[in-house]
Amino acid sequence: MTTTPVGAAARSETVATMLDVRALKKVYEGRGRSVEAIRDLTFTVGSGELVCIVGPSGAGKTTLLRCIAGLLDSTSGEVVLEGERVTGPPPGMAVVFQEYGRSLFPWMTVRQNVELPLKEKKVPKAERRRLVEEALEAVGLSDVHGAHPWQLSGGMQQRVAIARAVAYEPHLLLMDEPFAAVDAQTRADLEDLVRSLWRRLGVTVLFVTHDIDESVYLGRRVIVLSDSPTVVLEDVVIDLPDERDQLTTRSLPRFAELRAHVYELVQRAKGGHRPTS
Ligand SMILES: Nc1ncnc2c1ncn2[C@@H]1O[C@H](COP(=O)(O)OP(=O)(O)OP(=O)(O)O)[C@@H](O)[C@H]1O
Question: Where is the ABC transporter domain (predicted)?
Answer without folding.
Answer: 19-252
